[in-house]
Amino acid sequence: MNKIDLTKPTRQSPRGLILIFLFSTQKFVRAFWPILLVVVFQNQWFSNNLIVIIAVVFLLLLLIVHSILFYLNFFFYVAEDEFVLKKGYLRKKTLAIPLDRIQSVNTKQNLIQQLLDVVTLEIDTAGTAGKELTIHALNKTYSLELQEQLRTGDQKQTTTEKKEEIKEDVILQLSPADLLKIGISQNHIRAGLIIVIFGFQIFQQTQDLFQDKAEEYSSEFIEYMSHSNWALITFLVIFFMLIAILFSLSRTVLKYFDFKLTRKKKTYRIESGLINKRNVIIPYHKVQELNWETGPLKNFFGIYHLVFKQATSSQNSRHQQLVDVPGCLRNHLELLKTELFGEDELSSVSKIWSDKYYFRRLWILYGWLPVSLATPFLYSEWLFWAGAVLWLLLSAGYSYLILKKRYFRINNNQIRISKGAISHRWEQMKLFKIQAVEFRQSFFQKKRSLASLRLMNASGTITIPFIDEKIARQIYDYLLYHTEISEERWM
């Protein structure tokens, strides 16, 4: 077998030229699509077809030249324990990451890349904002070897020769029936809101170009709906919910098709996707938290949605490295918890609940505050008062459900936090992963001898609200002490 020399500057696969050209074309269309739309519908602007042909040919040549220059000036290598990537021809840019700071090395493959038989390699650290270290066109075999070497941080492994092969055990593999259960148990209200927001954005963007027509159609629709009966409105609501369910099912199939969770040594690998395939490697020691969730429908099917949370930078907190497993059964969940945290010692530890005062605070926030803000504008409407009473009752029930699920368990090594309302979520991590602890106490909490804690690790923040002040102080002191003395590897 040929050797992979990471110290030698290497370019992408030549097939990457096609991808660079397509990505450049896509960026151009996204930037100038309103102008292109106007040109298509207002073709009298260009009555001379020759001008149109010359413009199109000129743009194509420009994109081709850009793609070639970008390809020739894009290369990567390892130098002195750093992975270096250089790119750009007019404005040159060099990115370097120490091998021991690499947080994750993942691959993905869209439909075009599947046709070209190349993959994208993404390299993330806890200190970079965004995935700047991205290589879009690598040979599959080369990418797997590079992924393994960068993940381990061992640049001395420079050969693809077969060594003693370690068997990769399959932990979970989803069937079409599993995908159907997962799709049905998704949050369809959230899916419906995504459809509405997306449709509203499209309407807003097209309204600027075709303002008269947009106003005319929207006025006609509003007038039509105002004269419609309840049967039609009910039908539209049901139709919209069916669309939302179909949207959820489609997203589930596209994202989790052929899902497989495997284990090799102390590393998990997740493969999934139909149009966009992903291949994610998760070393045990880089998991900051293990989160899992169930809900009424998920509980009916006996499944959990599990998330591995890895390190992220504060600048990139919106794009945390969340790697999820959508259809865990109870035995899968227990197996993963045992492998990451050892034998379950927390179940025998007493629960520490948030104080009942937390319910009052939630009810004021979700119930009384919205009603109070709306009262000066709607106090003369009897329908408002009926709605206000209903809203207060619903918000009280919602706040009670939150309080009922708000507790945590802690021992000398780990902590597990329970929360949720309709759904039920748990977050678990080892104490040495904690990097900072905050003791918080407002004026109202102090009067009632209560306090809240915020536990921060490399993947984000966990909050423990409204617990007894003495307990909060003891946990705060112990966690600070534990953070100072711990020498275990947190990332």
For the CA atoms, what is the radius of gyration? 27 Å
Largest sheet: 7 strands, antiparallel
Average pLDDT over all residues:
83
Segments where pLDDT lies below 50 for 5+ residues? 154-163, 314-320
- In terms of DSSP E residues, the strand content is 25-35%
- Helix fraction bin: 40-55%
Describe it for me?
- With 491 residues, the protein is an alpha+beta fold.
- Helices cover 46% and strands 25% of the residues.
- The chain is built from 14 helices and 20 strands.
- A hairpin with a 2-residue loop joins strand 1 (75-79) and strand 2 (82-87).
- Helix 11 (357-378) packs antiparallel against helix 12 (382-404).
- The protein starts with 15 loop residues before the first helix and ends in a 6-residue tail after the last helix.
- Residues 154-163 and 314-320 have low confidence and may be disordered.
Question: Topology, please?
Answer:
Elements: H1 16-41, H2 49-72, E1 75-79, E2 82-87, E3 93-98, E4 102-109, H3 111-116, E5 118-125, E6 133-139, H4 140-152, E7 169-173, H5 176-184, H6 188-209, H7 211-226, H8 230-256, E8 260-264, E9 267-272, E10 277-283, E11 289-294, H9 296-301, E12 304-309, E13 322-328, H10 330-341, E14 352-353, H11 357-378, H12 382-404, E15 407-410, E16 414-420, E17 424-430, E18 436-440, H13 443-447, E19 450-457, E20 460-468, H14 469-485
Antiparallel strand pairs: 1-2, 2-3, 4-5, 4-10, 5-6, 7-8, 8-9, 9-10, 11-12, 11-17, 12-13, 14-15, 15-16, 16-17, 18-19, 19-20
Helix pairs in contact: 1-2, 5-8, 6-7, 6-8, 11-12
